[in-house]
Structure to design on (206 residues):
């Protein structure tokens, strides 16, 4: 089994995961005393791959991966780039493979907007409010984010990315309706559970 973890950050599980990010590139500008330990740690992780996922094609063959985790990564790209990324996910997935996507959920933020402030952040969102007056500011209009998602827009992205409508399902955080081991391995790494929208998209057997 081979699993791809896109934009892994600090969440880098061991084999069979391939953890992908641009951590080394980010640390180039840091003082040597700060960057050196990061480089040393990544050098000890043979399943870490330094790669900008917006640079296509990815260095994996067609149909070579069983599952892909895209946890809070698609919102960092504009609409057309995220579409290209979904299509690339489908290309590298094996028939019967699954893509699990999570993004900030606009419907949830709308539902709790009246209570969205620093005092309620832990209860409503599971984390402190780091910047801005509301978590809406932080999660949706953060400088690194390029688009916002709701259930319909994420569904449209996955369908236009090549997944068939009957292969796409919204899932509860940390859960999958599938009995497949790969689906549970992906769901295990769900995070930001209260504020996120979780979807699975399965590549049809071809």
């Amino acid at each position: 089994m081979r699993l791809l973890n896109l934009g892994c950050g600090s969440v880098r599980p061991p084999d069979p995961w391939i953890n992908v990010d641009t951590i080394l590139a980010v640390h180039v500008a840091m003082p040597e005393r700060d960057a050196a330990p990061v480089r040393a740690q990544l050098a000890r992780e043979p399943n870490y791959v330094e790669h900008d996922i917006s640079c296509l094609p990815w260095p994996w063959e067609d149909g070579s991966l069983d599952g892909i985790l895209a946890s809070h990564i698609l919102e960092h790209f504009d609409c057309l780039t995220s579409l290209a990324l979904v299509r690339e996910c489908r290309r590298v997935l094996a028939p019967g493979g699954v893509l699990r996507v999570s993004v900030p959920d606009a419907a949830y933020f709308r539902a709790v907007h009246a209570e969205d402030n620093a005092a309620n952040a832990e209860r409503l969102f599971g984390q402190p409010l780091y910047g801005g007056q509301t978590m809406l500011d932080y999660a949706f209009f953060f400088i690194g984010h390029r688009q916002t998602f709701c259930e319909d827009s994420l569904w449209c992205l996955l369908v236009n990315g090549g997944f068939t409508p009957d292969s796409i399902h919204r899932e509860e955080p940390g859960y999958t309706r599938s009995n497949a081991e790969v689906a549970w391995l992906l769901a295990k790494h769900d995070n930001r559970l209260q504020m996120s929208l979780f979807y699975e998209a399965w590549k049809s057997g071809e």
Q: What stands out?
A: The first strand starts at residue 3 and ends at 6.
